[in-house]
């Protein structure tokens, strides 16, 4: 076995074996959802339903084709369940494939330092961390790099052309960005005068992606591209502001793909007259984020782009440049993993420029490898904490909800939790697991008191952050910040377990505008918009304290001319105790006969037979105006207007 093979095998073992038990993280949840659905519906993995930001979607609008789901489904069928170690071990084969393909390309394009170039490309921090997830990124970079490797020899042997086409097809099945290989390979073949005989190979992405769209169209559902475009519009993902952040994030990531060692060497080769460009970038970077954790790598990234543009090797710099420009146009989140396909051409350019100083390439690879392993270790502790918490907190008696995305939801759902939907009405005895890192989904808890049972701060041992509370890192998305990674000892997340108990009401008479009344409103009463009253819907419910003496139940309000309702009913614990048929709009008083004293809280409901929409953009359904409701003493004359304060 050659020295190069031994080194590459050792590199793969170093970056993958310590992390085989990595907890499922981030979008692993969604890919596993699709894979499980594929076991029942193999042709349509992306018909899987999932909850995102409290809204239920299906995956036809997912930004990747279903190739990843099919591969995971095959592994799940083989394993019987989603288990971390065997799945990550299987996924490590893509690391082997990507590394070997990169070495094949490097031996052809940079033979004097092929091993150094390959190790440099495979030691990029994003390659180390991304390979420990079940995302599309690792399969894609494996198939993509093999397509380039076979493509470089496609004009020499027909078998290479077919292998290139199959690799392109596989890359297209897991990621739409495979289409960017068309101009890159077309450039190689045009310069070698092969394009006329190999153009058919470049149809693979069009056939695979177009075939997927047609398959979904024939299934009677929406075309995935249309659904995805709708998501972009709904969530504003392609706004100009997002594109600027995406460009800033991707540029800053280049500094750590090249490593500070190589960035310094590249900058030293720039003519002094060109230093004005990085200096301008420095000023813009400081304006965007005053921390050197952003403006320093952003300036370095601009220096890398300038250095690449000045290189004499037209093919390699266009390979890098075509992909980088495509990434600026296609993506919106600026995640580090988007730059994986740019690693190899950048490493090849570095190999050609600094091949006479192999120690420089090795030093850059060593620095990047140390950073990548440190970031991967932080990731391991972060997501592993969710798995441990879910095992500790679940199962529970009663319903359990999870207000979180990603890995925490994966493990919570395994324990019986359900994802929280917007507007979910919690009940007494319910539990809620919530993550401070995720967007907080709105829910209602009518008549309930939340009790914090446990709260855990997740704080990895190393002060590096790819994502976290207060961390302004763009490693996963520019939605959190612009820095390639952040340095802080703040917790990555605060996870809370809450139990909801029935609220013990303190008031027997509720004026709609008095302080503290909201805790006894169950549903159907709109927020305060007048000093003396509030609108209610067609039905409104309340939780009241029962008086120690016999009393009557009364409701007071007003029916405006625009309200069509005429019959008002008052219910106590589900039974009608009073009814009033109104002859015309005006003051409303409905009151029951005497009610015996009883222990415990009382659930009171007020109904009107018809509601209406006020129009003018107001989407509410209104029943009547409510001023007060509750129990009144027997010695108070019946059906009189209640005093303002009892």
Which tags fit this structure?
elongated; Jelly Rolls; alpha+beta; nine-stranded antiparallel sheet; 646 residues
Sketch the major β-sheet.
9 strands, antiparallel
Number of beta strands: 20
Q: Helix/strand/pairing class, anyone?
A: alpha+beta
Query: How many DSSP H or I helices?
Result: 19
Give the DSSP E fraction (strand runs of 2 or more residues).
Answer: 15-25%
Q: Can you tell me the CATH topology of the domain at 509-633? A: Jelly Rolls
Q: Which CATH architecture of the domain at 509-633 would you pick?
A: Sandwich
| CATH H level, superfamily name of the domain at 509-633 | Galactose-binding domain-like
CATH C-level category of the domain at 509-633 = Mainly Beta
Helical proportion, percent range: 40-55%
Uncertain parts: 640-646
- What integer is the average pLDDT? 90
């Amino acid at each position: 076995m050659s020295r190069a093979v031994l080194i590459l095998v050792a590199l793969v073992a170093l970056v993958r074996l310590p992390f085989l038990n990595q907890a499922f993280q981030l979008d692993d949840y969604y890919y596993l959802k699709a894979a499980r659905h594929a076991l029942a519906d193999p042709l349509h993995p992306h018909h899987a339903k999932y909850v995102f930001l409290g809204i239920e979607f299906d995956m036809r609008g997912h930004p990747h084709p279903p190739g990843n789901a099919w591969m995971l489904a095959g592994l799940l069928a083989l394993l019987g369940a989603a288990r971390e170690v065997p799945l990550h071990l299987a996924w490590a084969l893509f690391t082997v494939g990507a590394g070997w393909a990169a070495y094949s390309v490097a031996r052809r394009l940079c033979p004097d330092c092929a091993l150094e170039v390959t190790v440099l490309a495979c030691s990029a921090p994003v390659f180390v961390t991304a390979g420990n997830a079940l995302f599309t990124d690792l399969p894609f970079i494996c198939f993509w790099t093999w397509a380039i490797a076979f493509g470089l020899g496609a004009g020499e042997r027909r078998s290479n052309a077919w292998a290139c086409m199959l690799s392109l097809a596989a890359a297209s099945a897991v990621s739409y960005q495979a289409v960017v290989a068309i101009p890159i390979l077309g450039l190689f073949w045009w310069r070698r005068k092969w394009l006329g005989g190999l153009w058919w190979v470049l149809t693979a992405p069009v056939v695979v992606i177009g075939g997927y769209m047609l398959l979904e169209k024939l299934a009677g559902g929406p075309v995935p591209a249309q659904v995805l475009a709708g998501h972009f519009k709904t969530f504003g993902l392609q706004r100009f502001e997002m594109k600027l952040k995406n460009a800033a994030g991707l540029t800053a990531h280049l500094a750590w793909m090249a490593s500070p060692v190589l960035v310094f060497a590249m900058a030293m080769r720039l003519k002094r007259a060109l230093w004005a460009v990085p200096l301008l970038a420095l000023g813009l970077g400081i304006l965007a984020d005053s921390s050197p954790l952003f403006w320093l790598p952003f300036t370095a990234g601009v220096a890398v782009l300038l250095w690449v543009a000045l290189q004499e090797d037209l093919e390699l710099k266009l390979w890098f440049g075509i992909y980088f420009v495509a990434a600026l146009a296609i993506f919106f989140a600026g995640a580090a993993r988007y730059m994986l396909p740019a690693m190899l051409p950048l490493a090849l350019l570095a190999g050609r420029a600094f091949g006479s100083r192999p120690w420089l390439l090795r030093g850059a690879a060593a620095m990047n490898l140390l950073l990548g392993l440190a970031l991967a270790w932080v990731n391991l502790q972060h997501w592993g904490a969710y798995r441990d918490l879910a095992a500790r907190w679940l199962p529970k008696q009663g319903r359990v909800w999870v207000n979180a995305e990603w890995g925490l939801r994966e493990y919570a759902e395994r324990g019986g939790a359900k994802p929280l939907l917007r507007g979910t009405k919690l009940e007494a005895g319910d539990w809620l697991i919530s993550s401070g890192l995720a967007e907080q989904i709105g829910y209602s808890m009518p008549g309930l008191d939340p009790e914090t049972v446990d709260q855990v701060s997740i704080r990895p041992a190393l002060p590096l952050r790819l994502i976290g509370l207060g961390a302004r890192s763009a490693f996963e998305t520019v939605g959190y910040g612009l820095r390639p990674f952040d340095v802080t000892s703040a917790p990555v997340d605060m996870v809370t377990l809450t139990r909801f108990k029935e609220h013990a009401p303190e008031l027997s008479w509720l004026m709609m505008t008095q302080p503290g009344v909201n805790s006894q409103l169950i549903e159907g009463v709109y927020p305060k918009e007048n000093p003396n009253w509030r609108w209610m819907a067609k039905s409104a419910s309340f939780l009241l304290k029962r008086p120690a003496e016999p009393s009557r139940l009364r409701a007071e309000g007003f029916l405006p001319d625009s309200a069509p309702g005429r019959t008002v009913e008052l219910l106590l614990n589900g039974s009608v105790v009073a009814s009033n048929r109104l002859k015309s709009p005006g003051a409303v008083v409905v009151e029951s006969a005497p009610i015996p004293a009883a222990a415990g809280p009382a659930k009171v409901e007020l109904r009107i037979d018809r509601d209406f929409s006020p129009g003018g953009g107001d989407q509410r359904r209104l029943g009547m105006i409510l001023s007060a409701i509750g129990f009144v003493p027997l010695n108070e004359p019946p059906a009189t207007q209640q005093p303002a304060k009892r």
